[in-house]
Amino acid sequence: MEVFDVNQVIEEIFKEKLTYTIDGKEIAASSHISKEQGELLFELIKINRLSKTLEIGCAQGVSSIYICSALAERNEAKGSHEIIDPFQMSDWMGAGINALQRSGLNNYKLIQEPSEIYLPKLIEHGSNSYDLIFVDGFHTFDHALIDCFYSTKLLKVGGFLVLDDTDMPPIHKLACYLKKYPCYKMCGILTLYPKGLLGYITKIFGFMPLSANTRHMLPRVARAINRRPRTIVFKKISDDHRKWNWYSAF
Questions:
Q1: pLDDT digits (tens, 9 = 90+) for 39-81
Q2: Cα–Cα distance between 250 and 235 in angstroms, integer?
Q3: Which of 115, 122, 133, 185 might form a disulfide with 151, Cβ 3.0–4.6 angstroms?
Q4: In what order do the strands lie in the sheet with 130-135?
Q5: CB atoms within 10 A of CB 15
Q6: Does residue 235 contact residue 184 with C-beta atoms inside 8 Å?
Q7: Mean pLDDT across the stretch 221-243?
């Protein structure tokens, strides 16, 4: 297998819109985070000198590349990344792992178990152990809540919980709940807008101007134009000491 540098593989995915399965078959690059989201993860790890990271959901591997390359660039001997993705070889045909391998990155471990099964196992080995956890797995409210529940226990105080796809209704609702946690402080958001003049107007006024020609396109681009952030970063500022009957409306 030919190995490229990280930038070449990223360019291939974003510009040429293609990637490869684990057996080398060319497929469309259709399920991954944006460059802006990748750069957010990269800078978060680099600036805060993070070394132990966990990711729930890999798909075609773009987020994994940004995380692993940030760890590798720091030349941190203890830097390591764990990826939980039970569907990597079945649904995604190993595309994410192939992208990592072609990028020359090997500072990761793939766990092919459902997150709701594997995360409690990690708790058994000790809580407060991760610097950053990126949650981008199953996107129902209850499943993502389980991921965040265990992630809160696994994060070090001072660590970061990065929640993806917060413009989707169930994940947006989850983010509203997490904002109420006393142990978290929201410290970053990333909102994506369409390119060009339409994106500029949307960003300034908070809506997309409609015409007879654009109304039929609205459902297709609704997620891209709304004002909900695509990614939210929470910092764990203390241990989670909520009482058994804690509740805050969200």
A1: 999 999 999 999 999 999 999 999 999 999 999 987 655 678 9
A2: 19
A3: 133
A4: 108-111, 80-84, 52-56, 130-135, 155-164, 231-236, 184-190
A5: 9
A6: yes
A7: 82
Q: Averaged over 106-117, what is the pLDDT? A: 96
Q: How far is CA 6 from the centre of its chain?
A: 18
Residue whose token pair is 């070889």 = 89
The model's confidence at residue 201, banded by pLDDT at 50, 70 and 90, is very low
Task: Provide the total of helices (H) and of strands (E) in the chain, helices listed first.
Answer: 9, 9
Contacts by residues 115-122 (CB-CB < 8 Å, ≥ 24 positions apart): 115/56, 115/84, 115/86, 115/143, 115/146, 115/147, 115/150, 116/143, 116/146, 116/147, 118/84, 119/84, 119/146, 119/147, 119/150, 119/151, 119/154, 120/150, 122/150, 122/154
